[in-house]
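Before the break, one more example. Copy the sequence into your notebook; we will annotate it together after we see the structure.
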Amino acid sequence: MRKRGVIGAEVEIRVPFFDVDSINVVWHGHYVKYLELARCELLDALGYSYDAMRASGYAWPVIDLHLRYAQPAQFGQRLRVRAELVEWEHRLKINYLILDAESGRRLTRAASEQVAVCIQTREMQLTSPAELRDAVRRQLESMDAPA
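Here is what the structure looks like once it is written out:
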């Protein structure tokens, strides 16, 4: 069973014509772009966007990426792409689901891992910077706060 994330965000997209092949099926490489859209939404929700990462002195390259294709997405199809934060103490691990927006049927499952790299020294960090850990803590606390 896949580990559920503690914080999630999602985006909805409609598959554009330029993402499909001659039989109107999304070319496999474009799914990574869809994951990135959801990841950006998640990072924005955390208050630790790519701009904030850079401002804090860290780059976060993707070091691992896995995709499992169950059903193809097609031209014009509405997709819901969900990103869930799974790990953040030593790396940034995010699980994804790409679903058909109308039926909820799973099309693709994926996971990515990123590590912090100091921009100045280009050294990989063995733990995530305080800025990320603090952003996650704040978000978790706000979720626990009574409405």
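The chain has one domain: 7-133. The domain at 7-133 is CATH 3.10.129.10 (Thiol Ester Dehydrase; Chain A). Try to locate both features in your own notes.
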